[in-house]
Amino acid sequence: MKSTVRFGACQTPEFIDDPPVALDCMLQFAKEAEVKKVDLLLFPECFLSGYILDEAYMVNHAYDFESRQFAVILKQLSHIKPTLVFGVSETRSEKLFNSAVVVSKGEIVGVYRKTHLINPNELLFTPGMNYPVFEIKGLKYGINICFDTKFSDAAKAVADQGAKLLLSPAQNMLRRETAEYWKDKHSEICAERVKETGLWFVRSDVTGIHPPGQYGVERIGYGPTLVMNPTTEIVAQAPFMTVGLITVDIPVISQG
Asked: Is the dihedral of CA 10, 13, 15, 19 positive or negative?
């Protein structure tokens, strides 16, 4: 019997130093996703913490997933119908990780920790070692975070476990000239991984302008937030510089 799973990907503003506002944004997107009957909702890299590559900042904004502090957040997510996948700076065993946490009805289903770190900017994090695969309504999926997708081994590790979909939380708030250069190349990287693996690819990114100030020079985020099918066709994409939610129905074949 053939059925589908509806995935949603959010193109969001960048939130810095303000997890409560980021969480409120998540809740607002979740409301929209529930109306659209989305089964799983994806958010960008380090969405809850803010992606500032400064060790003091990340230590201050990192979450221990077993802490009371994170339990309060999970409680606020307990009424959300879609499964949520969102980026967050994680502290564990006195180490920092760039993580994506999978949450269903306020319970942690699992965690993926970014394996490929940008040298030297991300070396404040410890690289993850595993590529866990998750399942929703009979469809298996895995996660690669942003820079991971430049490496064939990361997507292959997910595909080799029988997954049909790769989720990619991303954060491309870049210097303007760099952002212009990469504006369309992100999709080319997605296509490379899809050609190698035959996976569906769902990507969530930030958009907007980060003004110069405490955390450096002006930066701009175009996105893109997109869905690519196994033939490398982009079947949904949020417009550049636009906050919004895209959805796609991905088929799953089940026995019965």
From this structure: negative
The dihedral sign for the CA sequence 169, 145, 159, 106: negative
The token pair that represents 64 in the structure block? 């221990």
Position of tokens 């907007």?
Answer: 208
Which DSSP helix (H) or strand (E) runs through 218?
A: none
Q: CB of 197 within 8 A of CB of 210?
A: no
Classify strands 134-136 and 234-237 as parallel, antiparallel or unpaired.
unpaired
pLDDT at position 58 is 96
Q: Tokens for 153?
A: 């081994």
The position carrying tokens 């296509």 is 191
Any bridge partners for residue 197, and if so which?
Answer: none
Is residue 76 within 8 A of residue 22, CB to CB? The reply is: no
Q: If pLDDT is split at 50, 70 and 90, which confidence band does 215 have?
A: confident
CA angle 252, 253, 256 (to 5 degrees): 135
Query: Percent of the chain at pLDDT above 70?
Result: 98
Tell me the C-alpha distance between 199 and 165, whole Å: 5
User: What is the secondary structure of 95-119 as a DSSP string?
Assistant: EEEEEEEEEETTEEEEEEE--S--T
Q: Across residues 82-88, what is the average pLDDT?
A: 98
Percent of the chain exceeding pLDDT 90 equals: 96
